[in-house]
Amino acid sequence: MNPLLDKLQPYPFEKLRQLFAGVTPDPAFSPISLGIGEPKHPTPPFIQEALAANLSGLASYPSTLGSDALRGAIAGWLERRYGLPPLDPATQILPVNGSREALFALAQTVIDPVPGALVMCPNPFYQIYEGAAYLAGATPYFVNSDPARNFAPDYRSVPAEVWPRVQLLYLCSPGNPTGAVLTLEDWKELFALSDRYGFVIASDECYSEIYFKDTAPLGGLEAAHKLGRSGYPRLIAFSSLSKRSNVPGMRSGFVAGDAEILKKYLLYRTYHGSAMSPSIQAASAVAWNDEQHVIENRQKYVAKFNQVTPLLREVLDVDLPDAGFYLWAKVDGRVAISDTEFAKRLHAEYNVTVLPGSYLAREAHGANPGANRVRMALVAEVEECLEAAQRIVEFARKL
User: Which part of the chain is the Aminotransferase class I/classII large domain (predicted)?
Assistant: First the structure.
């Protein structure tokens, strides 16, 4: 067996299952889960219809490169969304089966597993980054989030001697679980470091279309363009239809950016067997070409967060995030209670599931930046989220 598998930690939801072992929730309450970040809004009918209308594609082997129609639709969306100059769909865009496997696969393409190789990750973080680093033969280096910067990673805290060993830097903007969005100045500093040390930046942007301000979150390709970085050197952006269009089961996303890296990435993926079904490609192209359903979806999240956040703020230290569909709440403000104890007792007494923040982070530089926080995924319809919030308020007032 591959000995690197032994370095992988249980997924956060496995830890949660173990935390709840032996706990019987109060049957007076119906179960409500705010734990898993799985969109629950209905899939738009026109996407379902496009999928059904293209089932004949199941009779054909798919191309790893994807269809011209899909890559053209993705290019058009990127240009409209971020104000980019025309992209080359043949060399700068590649469809992928959701961002998870694509993020993992990039490390296998990029990393040269020499002794001391590092993959830089935000902390807290999406656990795929860590697993991808280990299984590529590198070691993750965690950069803790900074509450003073709305939980964006504090890259200025990284010692100078670390940067030369970094081969790949994962970032998530808007962040999971914090909702933090990098600024143009943040990007400028990261690009300068990438230029100096040669590492690749993997920009995970799957929450980019759920936001609460008038201005949409800044993307990595957009930042590069604004800073005059022609060709997007050493930058790969990842996005997905899962959250944008409420189709997590389609497993449809894309990567875009540096054509030289994508050329090698396509070679790896050709051997890896990661090709999107032609039926899914056809439905995906239709989804990327429509914006009205995205606007309507975002309006539902705005209305939901505007109702739920003030309720929870009565008892928890929590604020509206920059973007994304999570609330990142501090639970030990009024009483001394850990995030795991909070989650376990809330589940037992009110049948509401939240995810302990410490499960989403690692002990690094003397601290676990997720400790005493919980992540709440407001993915269900507003009535269910409000019911969960009311139960949390009642629970917290009893502590």
Answer: 32-392
